[in-house]
Every structure is written in C-alpha cells, then in structure tokens.
Amino acid sequence: MTITASMVAELRGKTDAPxxxxxxxxxxxxxxxxxxxxxxxxxLGNKAGKAASRITAxxxxxxxxxxxxxxxxxxxxxxxxxxxxxxxxxxCNAAAKAVATANPADVAALSATAFSLDGFxxxxxxxxxxxxxxIGENMSFRRFKRFSGSPVTTYLHGTRIGxxxxxxxxxxxxxxxxxHIAAMKPVALSSAEVPAELIAKERSIAEQKAAESGKPxxxxxxxxxxxxxxxxxxxxxxxxxxxxAADGKQTVAAYLKSANTTLKSFTLxxxxxxxxxxxxxxxxxxxxxxxxxxxx
Length: 296
What we know:
Strand content: 15-25%
Strand order of the largest sheet: 1-2-3
Structural class: alpha+beta
Largest sheet: 3 strands, antiparallel
Shape: flat
Number of strands: 6
Helix content: 40-55%
Number of helices: 11
C-alpha cells in the first residue's frame, strides 16, 4: 500500500499529529485512515483526537417551537455562501416548522409537505428543487427530530450548531444547559446511556496504552478502568462540569437540581457531522490531465 502525501495531509488535518507520526501510523495501518487515527490516539493521547471532529460539510440547523411541540432539522448545502442566502434560510425555517406541525415519518414525507417560496411550490421538495436551479447549488434535508408532549427549549449557536432539550421545571435553566451542550458536545445524558461501541473503543485504546507501561496485570486493569470512568464523565452530560459553574466544579446534574429542573432528553446537531466532504487534490488533478494529454 503506497502512502501518499495527500493521505498524510488528510490524517494530519484530522488529528493535528506531526507529519512523520501520521506517515508511520498510516504505514502501520496499511492505509486504513480510521485505524491510523486509533494508532495515533494510543501513541499521542488526546492530542491526536482534538481535531478529529472538524466538520467540513456546509448547511444550517434550524428550530421551531410552538408550546410543547418543536422541530429541529439539519439542511445541507455545498458552500458557506449559500447558508447566508435568504431563500435558503426560508426553506430551512419552513422545514423546521413542518417537522413540528406535520409530524413527518421521514425525509420523503417531510419533502411532500405544503410550502411555496420564490414562485416555487406547492411542496418543500418543489421549493428545494427550484432553489437548486436558481442558486446553482445542491441542497438536501439531512435529519430531523420532533418533540411533543413535554416542555421544550432550543439553543442555536449561529446556524451551525443546534440543541433541543425536553425538560420539567425552569426554562431558563434548561436553556443554559442547552447552551452547555452546544459547547461541550456530550454524547449521552448519563454514563449509563453512552453507546456500548464507544465504551468498547475507549477501553481498547486504554488497554493498548496501559500495556505499554509494562506494569503488572492487576495495575493495568485498574488503569484501564480508571481511563474508561474518566471518559464516561467527560462525555456524559449530567457528569460534566457546568460551563457557567461559579466554582468551576459544579456538575450539570447539581446545577439542574439547584434549579429544581429535570432534563428528560437532548438532541444535538452539528452541521456536517459525520459527512466526509470531497477534498480536491489539485496537483493530482493536473498530473492526471497531463498524463491524459500525453496518451492522446
């Protein structure tokens, strides 16, 4: 497997690890990008993970609330320029409202709901297709969540991060926690709800790191358990230190208790999360064109 400069650059962009370390990891992983990231985390710790969640796809997260009914949606597009277009934003806000009011089962059902804009219609899908032709850029409804029956509040950080929380109690406190979620990006409400596959991956990384210490098996086992427990506290909302904590120690759970508020659930959308955006390799493209010209 040939490790190219573009592969090394891509891994460095995801991990912030030194170029040579990236090349070594890719060589060891036989070019497997995901495996190379894991190798770097074992060798370099969290330094290698801090940029792994960089998002490259563009779009908007929009929200709509009417009493105890709400909708949160992510709508993607190709460039940041379009996210500032009034017509595109109108489509996004209309889609968020449709999620709440029409209760669509999936994206196809959402697309079929009634809406007209800029002379396009009579459905959201017709408006979407019309704007694609008008603006000249693809756009799509990616994912959405509807809430109903419990008090809901939302927090939008610009248009790229959106949070919705279901709660009982004080709305101001719930919204503060929604803001915390946008900043700290927990993966679950409590440690008991952290997906098993994430825990297994973290345990595997901790075991590999601990094994390199050369310490006795019983000590290694304690080190691994300690690493996993630390990870669970870092990614579980209720265990995280509240971003507005005056003493720098108060957890989200303690803050909510002090405000007589209970958080039932939360949904966090970050634009483009999990989407790999195509990165053009200009040098490779030129080389391919030169080679094609010679062959002609």
